[in-house]
Task: structure prediction
Amino acid sequence: MIIVVKNTCEQSQFDNLIDWVKELGLGVHVSRGEISTVLGLVGDTSKVDIDLISSLDIVEKVQRVQEPYKNANRKFHPEDTIVNIAGHKFGGNNFHVIAGPCSVESEAQIIEVAEAVKAAGATMLRGGAFKPRTSPYAFQGLKDTGIELLLKAKKETGLPIVTELLSVSHLDLFKDVDVIQIGARNMQNFELLKEVGKTGKPILLKRGLANTLQELLMSAEYIMAEGDSEVILCERGIRTFETMTRNTLDLSAVPALKDKSHLPIIIDPSHSTGIAKYVEPMSLASVGAGADGLIIEVHNDPKRALCDGAQSLNPAQFASLMTKIKTMLPIVGKDYDGK
Ligand code: PEP
Ligand code: MN
Result:
């Protein structure tokens, strides 16, 4: 971190600032210029309150040269993280497709979809049991029964399951869940992030509707600071002025996050577009961008889905997309599943 101090300041104010920085356990490198003096802070500046320093009268500006996240930072962990999900390696050169309905609706529905996505080559099953709906009157999910049905589908198909946790009070129900999803609306629910970080389970962390990539990495940092290094990031579209798609898919999140972090990054083309026929082009674009996987909504009867039918593929559309994804993977140097 660099602090630019105005040369008009009193020596005592300057000394006080230096003492304060040293009390934070940091070293200071002073470089005097004609108009201003530059202080280079040496050490772990992640806990320094940049706004507090900026607010001092004697300070011209403050600039971070080091990111405020450590565990998620590629600088401190140059190798890609490989998350282990029930024996599947996620990250690195391995590509995965997680597929399933937006919500678990019945035993017949989840088993039928699980079998269909498995037959098409999905490596994991998604399905919401607790649903974060905009309206309190919309279908809220089958809750504990939904988790039981997902576990049944896992038993039938062998597919690991990915499902969203909305509240710490439900955590006991997630013991046998393979991947805990933290949805867009909870990306900055810091207490929830700390609690899932204590589980040590793989966590699928979705980007918030209006959050920057740095904020996403800071949320990953919350989980990792609790000792859980198994975090998968997910870009699922953000709010912009555009209304022709449900959200705007920020595909540049893939190279940007790969540059800054060693964590795997996947794309959700379903929630980002909101329209089933846009899912295939954006899935293939995600492969091209270097994503480590996709999470795709698939329903056995999209027209009758209780949630997100308009963006759900039917099993035939999903199978056709899987063939195209597998054809593209060698071009980007990825193996499918790669167990
Ligand atoms: C979901 O995956 O079903 C979901 C609600 O996603 P998001 O949190 O990205 O809206
Ligand atoms: Mn959905």
In short: The CA atoms of residues 26 and 237 lie 39 Å apart. The two ends are 42 Å apart (CA to CA). The first strand starts at residue 2 and ends at 6. The chain has a mean pLDDT of 96.
